[in-house]
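Handout for the seminar on molecular recognition.
Each group receives one record of this type.
Step one: identify the two inputs.
Step two: read the structure output and locate the region that could contact NDP.
Step three: write two sentences on what you found, then compare them with the reference statements printed after the record.
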Amino acid sequence: MSRSISILGATGSVGEQTLDLLRRNPGDWNVIALTANSNVAGLAAAAREFEAELAVVADEKCLDDLRDALSGSGIEAAAGRSALCEAAARPAAITVAAIVGCAGLGPVMAAIEQGGTIALANKEALVSAGEVMTAAVARHGATLLPVDSEHNAIFQCLQGGKIADVRSITLTASGGPLRMVEDLSAVTPEQAIAHPNWDMGAKISVDSATMFNKGLELIEAHHLFPVGLDRIRIVVHPQSVIHSMVEYRDGSTLAQLGPSDMRVPIASCLAWPARMDTPMAPLDLPAIGEMTFFAPDEDRFPATRLARQAAEAGGAAPAVLNAANEIAVAAFLKRQIAFSRIAVLVESVLEQGVLPPAPRTLEEVLRVDEDARTRATRILEPA
Ligand code: NDP
């Protein structure tokens, strides 16, 4: 029997890799909704190929083009933020949340309210909403499965174990493409995006280069696996073979290993609690040869320190950190600021004035996000 699935952010890196897995298992899946921001051609092609019920673009200006691209197919077309949330709210056995940034938060919350299974790649949504999201998951009886390779690794290592028995969690980090680059102020977007191990969208690639990706993952892990922040460590492991580890109180450490290919954790979520085939070659340890590990250099890459401080402060701080980082990354990609200013900008926004009170609803999270974006933009473009 086929399972129903919706993919939010179907035209992105995670979205396309999810579609690749569906393509390899024809007949197993019934596609409900596919969404994109403005990539009409990619969205319409995927919607036609997988015979989706509904295709949605966030950018309302693209609606006529989407309707044209889908004409004669019988697939519904819609546009705008509320249409995205309506697509996410359509009942589906599993929803892959793969929109980039806090823009995905509303749709993720709409999917959670359906009480189904959400395969969450969109880490910024969980970082920003924190307890607002975890409380909604509990309230609606939804299941949150982590797609992020590190969190998926931890999730797998925790099967059969108890959080109370965990001594520590270790998030591995590749260190990104700039670990060995001396002058970070001269780094170009092209250099920052050229990740040595993973092929990902532009924003997360820059986050990997600054180490904000690991910082966001620290906050994500803190919400998904409540062992206490002081028990979540970060270690740089440039080969990206071990995706993360869980150490238990008896001294056993369990690790999940695999290729640097997001189809592995995506497949783990799609099939969970069973397993499914992927096109991965068997793990060849002699070919890998050696695995190395280093402590992160927080003087050169302050992002993990800033993220830990925001997580410790709690309340609105993680949403502020995330929003400021999104503005800074966008400005860096447009060559408006130097690479090394990304962390400086985030720190300035976090330190500016008094933090807003802890948000208790989705609307309050979105207000904190909007306010932090405005403040970050003002620092970048003083009046
Ligand atoms: P991409 O940039 O490749 O894709 C983003 C997707 O979101 C696209 O479908 C894009 O549509 C859509 N989108 C962008 N902006 C908006 C918006 N404002 N409203 C609605 N939809 C929007 O990102 P990735 O696939 O790399 O990453 C997606 C998420 O998964 C991120 O949160 C990232 O941190 C996380 N992740 C990604 C990994 C990876 O390997 N790529 C690994 C682990 C986590 P369009 O194509 O039209 O622009």
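Reference statements: The chain is about 45% helix and 15% strand. The chain has a mean pLDDT of 96.
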